[in-house]
Amino acid sequence: MTSGRFWFPTCTLLLVGALLAASQGCGGGGGEPCSECPPIEGRYALELQEGPLPAACDGLTVVLPEGPLDMARQGSAVAAMLDGMTLRGTLYSTYNFNLVGSSLGAADGGIGGPESASLTGRYIPVLRDGGVPRLEGNWQGNFSGTSGGGTRRCAVTRSFTATPQ
């Protein structure tokens, strides 16, 4: 026989979890793709946050992107070019965006640069007269190299800001 004393906390936790998941939107992208999209297109100066490389990257050639970041938009579909890598994704009605790309098949083989990368962030419009819009978010690059007959992999994540050039 059960006492029922665990029913309320369990149901409360499940309900709170469901509400939090729903508030994240589809796929964590920020809701519905935009129908009235902000003017995200243009060339941006990219600045990655400084920091040490993860220990898993020791011995690998890791070259972080320097930019510029060129953004193009058609409806809610966004494409970007960053250090020779094309990234594609979606701009959402919340002004959040996500982009992913790969250097597989690139002419230089992605030497030093990432095999794949993603940008997730938000377009922040001009809030005051004389201000400039910007992008803020996270960049992640996935690197690999061979040593001792095996392949080693590492991922590097950095916060970024980008302002129009």
Considering the chains and any ligands shown, give keywords for the structure.
single chain, 165 residues, mainly beta, eight-stranded antiparallel beta barrel, 8 strands, 43% strand, disordered N terminus
Topology:
Elements: H1 7-23, E1 42-48, E2 69-74, E3 77-82, E4 85-91, E5 96-102, E6 116-124, E7 134-147, E8 150-164
Antiparallel strand pairs: 1-2, 1-8, 2-3, 3-4, 4-5, 5-6, 6-7, 7-8
Structure, described:
The chain has one helix at 7-23; strands at 42-48, 69-74, 77-82, 85-91, 96-102, 116-124, 134-147, 150-164. With 165 residues, the protein is mainly β. The chain is elongated, with a radius of gyration of 20 Å. The relative contact order is 0.20. Residues 1-28 have low confidence and may be disordered.
Mean pLDDT: 82
What is the overall shape?
A: elongated
- Rg over CA atoms, rounded to whole Å, is 20 Å
Q: Biggest sheet, in brief?
A: 8 strands, antiparallel, barrel
Strand order of the largest sheet: 1-2-3-4-5-6-7-8
**Could you say which structural class the secondary elements and strand pairing correspond to?**
mainly beta
The percent of residues in helical segments reads 10-25%
End-to-end CA span: 69 Å
Number of strands: 8
Strand percentage lies at 35-45%
Segments where pLDDT lies below 50 for 5+ residues? 1-28
What is the number of helical segments per DSSP (H or I, 4+ residues)? 1
Question: H/E order of the elements?
Answer: HEEEEEEEE
